[in-house]
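Tokens for chain A. Residues wanted.
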């Protein structure tokens, strides 16, 4: 793989709410499969040329030229070029809790793939900024925020009229620590269950059940990394059957058990009230 890498040392220590660990541009040959777990970092990638197969947390996408995709912190992923097609892309490795908060604030925390997203000029600008190194890290963080804004605007323009899906998503997001009954949510909608299910899947790329489960795992990850809440309390707070069920589901989604993640992480915030 031919690469141009631009590492950042000043903002990669984890002391900042939003930081850039590395930026780059590369050709990925068809024989190269990249897989793993994003751990504490998130990845934004823009495809300049080529086509790929992307698997992230059990979902499958087929990004091509002009597409952007996001690999959120802690996600399990695998991607590789489609047969006989090399992948040419620009990417940024981002860390810090603020990135997750921005995705949630702009309502794209559950969106991984942005087909034909008009952010090419922003990624190329980011690459030019990255060439200046640490002295430009704050400017690059601001540009990452701009990319999120443009991606959210694009997604809203494409799916913004999907009021039923937005209603389901908002209900799940605001009641994620409650015991959510998806069937009751459907019963309150003006359209039929099958129609609401299809609209939600079109809007988010997944079913309401999967979306709810992923949001719970995402919040559990936040509690494990940023608080001292005991694992059994996190399990109870998010309404898993028991700590064993929570541990099994968490490892299935994140590739690491809650206990192992807690051992590898230093909590920086006090236990919430």
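Reply:
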């Amino acid at each position: 793989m031919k690469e141009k890498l631009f590492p950042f040392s000043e903002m990669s220590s984890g002391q900042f709410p939003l930081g850039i660990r590395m930026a780059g541009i590369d050709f990925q040959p068809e024989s190269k499969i990249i897989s793993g777990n994003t751990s504490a970092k998130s990845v934004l990638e823009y495809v300049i040329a080529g086509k790929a197969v992307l698997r992230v947390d059990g979902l499958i996408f087929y990004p091509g030229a002009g597409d952007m995709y996001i690999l959120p912190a802690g996600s399990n992923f695998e991607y590789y070029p489609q047969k006989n097609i090399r992948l040419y892309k620009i990417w940024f490795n981002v860390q810090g809790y603020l990135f997750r908060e921005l995705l949630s604030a702009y309502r794209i925390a559950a969106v991984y793939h942005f087909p034909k997203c008009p952010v090419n000029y922003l990624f190329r600008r980011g690459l030019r900024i990255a060439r200046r190194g640490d002295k430009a890290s704050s400017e690059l963080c601001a540009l990452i925020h701009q990319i999120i804004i443009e991606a959210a605007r694009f997604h809203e323009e494409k799916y913004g009229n999907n009021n039923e899906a937005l209603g389901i998503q908002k209900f799940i997001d605001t009641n994620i620590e409650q015991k959510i009954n998806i069937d009751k949510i459907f019963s309150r909608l003006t359209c039929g269950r099958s129609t609401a299910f299809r609209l939600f899947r079109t809007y988010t790329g997944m079913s309401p059940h999967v979306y709810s489960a992923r949001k719970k795992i995402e919040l559990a990850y936040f509690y494990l990394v940023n608080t001292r809440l005991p694992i059994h309390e996190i399990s109870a707070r998010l309404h898993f059957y028991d700590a064993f069920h929570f541990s099994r589901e968490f490892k299935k989604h994140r590739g690491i058990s809650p206990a192992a993640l807690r051992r590898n992480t230093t909590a920086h915030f006090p236990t919430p009230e």
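The radius of gyration is 19 Å. The first helix runs from residue 97 to 105.
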